[in-house]
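User: For documentation purposes, I need each entry recorded in a consistent format: the amino acid sequence on its own, followed directly by the corresponding C-alpha cells. There are two entries in this batch. Please keep commentary to a minimum and don't merge the entries.

Assistant: Recorded as requested. Entry 1:
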Amino acid sequence: MTAAARGARARTDAAAPGPALGPLAPARRAALRAECTRLAELDDAEFGVRLLANTPTHEGRDPALLDRWAKAATAFGAELAADGGARGPGRHGSDVHGPGGDGPGSHQPGAHGHDRHGSGARVVERDGGLGQLLLARYVSRPAPAFELYVDTLALGEELAGWLGWRGWFPAGALREAALAHETAHCLLHGDRALRRALRERVGHTALRLGRLRVPGHVAGADELAAHGYAAARCGLGRTPLLLTAALASAARALGEISGAPLAGTSVGALGED
C-alpha cells in the first residue's frame, strides 16, 4: 500500500497546537504542516534509503543498492520482533510489547525503573534530548541502561496529534517504540550470532575468495533493524522514521525562535552508545 493510500485510511482529525508548537507564528506552523505532509507522502522505504545515504561510508552508493539493504535490514528487525526477540540474550519471559519503566513516578524526568521489554536494562528518564534530536539512547556501560528524553517524546506526541497522525502513532506509542528500538539495539549488542545473521540478511560482501564469502558490515543496518523491530512490536501504522523526520522539522522551527541550533538532524533521531 502506498503512503498516500495509508494516509487516506489512517489520518485523524488534527489537534490544536499544544504548548511546544503554540509559540510558532501561524505562517511558520503552516509551513511546518506542509513540510510534514510532504514527508507523509513518501513511501516508508524511502526513509530507510535516506538514513543509509546520510550514513558515512555510503556516499555515492547506488540508491537501488541502498534500497535493497534498507528493506532487508528493516524486514530482519520486524521478523525478530515476531519471534519475541527469542534469538537475543537477556530474555526472562517478559513480552517486549508494553510500557517501559515501573514504579511510582516512572514517567517523570530523572525517574528510574527497569525495562519491561525483556532486556533487563535500567530505564532513566531525562531532559535535554531535543537539542540533539534524541528520543532514547542505549548505554551498555557500566551496566545496560535505556535513557529516555522526555522533552523530545513530549514534542513527538504533540506533533502526532497536531498533524492528525494518531492512526499511525497512537497516544503513548512513541515511548513504547523508543524502548522497543533500544531493546533491539541491546539484543544485537549482546549476541554475535544475531549480528552475523543481520549481516547475512543484508547481503553485503566484504571479501570473496573462490567459494569463500565474507559478509560485510553495513553502517546503519542495525539502526534500520531497530526501527523495523519497534514498528512491528508496537503495531505502528508507519515507520518511526516518518515521525522522527517530522520531529527534526519541528525542532528546527522551534530553534528559529529560541535561537538554539539543532545539533542533530538525522532521520534516525534515536541513538546508542
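Entry 2:
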Amino acid sequence: MSKSLSTPMLLLTLLAAPLAALAGPACTSEPESKWIPEADMVKRFQALGYKDDVKKLHVSKGKCWEIYGHDKQGRKVEVYFHPISGAIAEENIKD
C-alpha cells in the first residue's frame, strides 16, 4: 500500500472510532416477539432503583431496549438493556 493511500485510511479509521462508541451496545438479533414487553422493561428499570420518570424508551440501533430517565441521585441516565435477559448492557450518566 502506498503512503498516499494509508494516510487517508488511518484518518478515516480514527474519525469513525468515536462514532462507533456512540452507537451503543449490540444486544440481539432475536425477533421482538421474544423480547421482554416495553411495560415490563419500565417496571424493571424502576425496580433497579431508577426513578419512575422514564423520559423515553425505544429500540436502539443495536437492538437493545434504550431507556432515558434519572438515577437515585437525580442524574440523567441512558441505560441499554438486553431485551431478552433484561440485563444492563450499558449505562451512561449524562450529568
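Summary note for entry 2:
The CA atoms of residues 28 and 58 lie 15 Å apart.
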